[in-house]
């Protein structure tokens, strides 16, 4: 199941099936998509309950699927909801992230690991691969060489190697502290940065949109900017 609560201006979303290492069923993917898309807070902190972040798709569900393509599309929609949400999504990864759990994390704006975090795409070992946007986002984030090594081998990355490859942004003891740090920024600036960095249009269109967003923020925060000039 997916639990949500609002805490000090941050939407906290918890994947809460610890007995199944937070493996995701279709109903969980739907609930996850809704929890993030409906967030009013400028920052959402996504985490897993218990000793794992997320084991990915529930393999009992996968083994019984009548329509595997629809299940893959449901996972893609959940990931796209995270990537496209107005809220900035900080994913805190403690323990194992496997398969679809990696792909859900890939859709987040920031992936913050604890030293105990580990990552793998083990599907290749039993004839599958990451179909919740994994083949799209992995090379963008890790680079093609590291992405292919990670996905083709099925090997486990520890937190340090995940940091080296760019799979995570930081390794800290308390990932929630990074969500708090991000939430200290101005909400409209956070939204503008996410929109611009996530923009997949051509460079010229992105740069025009970037300049427009910058001008809007200068006008909105003129007093704050002026106050910093003497610092």
Q: Which key phrases capture this entry?
A:
231 residues, alpha/beta, 2-enoyl-CoA Hydratase, Chain A, domain 1, 2 domains, 6-stranded mixed β-sheet, 4-stranded mixed β-sheet
Task: Report what the structure shows.
The chain folds into two domains: 2-182, 2-enoyl-CoA Hydratase, Chain A, domain 1; 199-229. The mean pLDDT is 92. The strands form two sheets. Strands 1-2-3-5-7-10 form a six-stranded mixed beta sheet, sandwiched between helices. Strands 4-6-8-9 form a four-stranded mixed beta sheet. The longest helix has 18 residues, at 203-220. With 231 residues, it is α/β, with parallel strands linked by helices. α3 (68-84) runs parallel beside α4 and α5 (134-142) packs across α6 (144-153). It is globular, with a radius of gyration of 18 Å. 49% of the residues lie in helices and 18% in strands.
What's this, in brief?
With 231 residues, this protein is α/β, with parallel strands linked by helices. It has 11 helices and 10 strands. Strands 1-2-3-5-7-10 form a 6-stranded mixed sheet, with helices on both faces.
Strand content: 15-25%
| Parts with pLDDT < 50 across at least 5 consecutive residues | none
User: What is the subunit organization of this protein?
Assistant: single chain
What does the overall shape look like? globular
CATH 2nd-level architecture of the largest domain: Alpha-Beta Complex
Element-by-element helix/strand order: EEHEEHHEEHEEHHEHEHHHH
Structural class: alpha/beta
Write down the overall mean pLDDT.
92
Helix content: 40-55%
Number of strands: 10
The overall number of domains is 2
The major sheet is characterized as: 6 strands, mixed
Please name the CATH topology of the largest domain.
2-enoyl-CoA Hydratase, Chain A, domain 1
Distance between the termini: 48 Å
Taking all Cα atoms into account, the compactness measure Rg is 18 Å
Q: Helical element count? A: 11
Can you identify the CATH class of the largest domain? Alpha Beta
- Look at the structure and name the CATH superfamily of the largest domain: 2-enoyl-CoA Hydratase, Chain A, domain 1
């Amino acid at each position: 199941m997916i639990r949500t609560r609002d805490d000090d201006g941050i939407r906290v979303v918890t994947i809460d099936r610890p007995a199944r290492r937070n493996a995701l069923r279709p109903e969980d993917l739907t609930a996850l998509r809704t929890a993030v898309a409906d967030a009013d807070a400028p920052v959402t902190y996504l985490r897993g309950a218990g000793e794992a972040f997320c084991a990915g798709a529930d393999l009992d569900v996968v083994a019984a699927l009548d329509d595997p393509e629809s299940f893959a599309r449901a996972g893609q929609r959940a990931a796209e909801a995270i990537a496209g949400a107005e809220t900035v999504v900080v994913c805190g990864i403690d323990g194992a992230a496997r398969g679809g759990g990696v792909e859900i994390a890939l859709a987040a704006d920031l992936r913050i690991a604890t030293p105990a975090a580990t990552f793998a795409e083990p599907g290749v070992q039993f004839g599958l691969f990451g179909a919740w946007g994994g083949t799209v986002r992995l090379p963008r984030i890790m680079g093609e060489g590291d992405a292919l090594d990670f996905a083709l081998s099925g090997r486990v990355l520890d937190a340090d190697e995940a940091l080296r490859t760019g799979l995570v942004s930081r390794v800290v003891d308390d990932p929630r502290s990074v969500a708090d740090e991000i939430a200290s920024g101005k909400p409209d600036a956070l939204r503008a940065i996410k929109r611009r960095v996530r923009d997949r249009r051509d460079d010229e269109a992105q740069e025009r949109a970037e300049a427009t967003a910058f001008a809007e923020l200068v006008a909105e925060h003129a007093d704050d900017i002026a106050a910093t000039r003497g610092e």
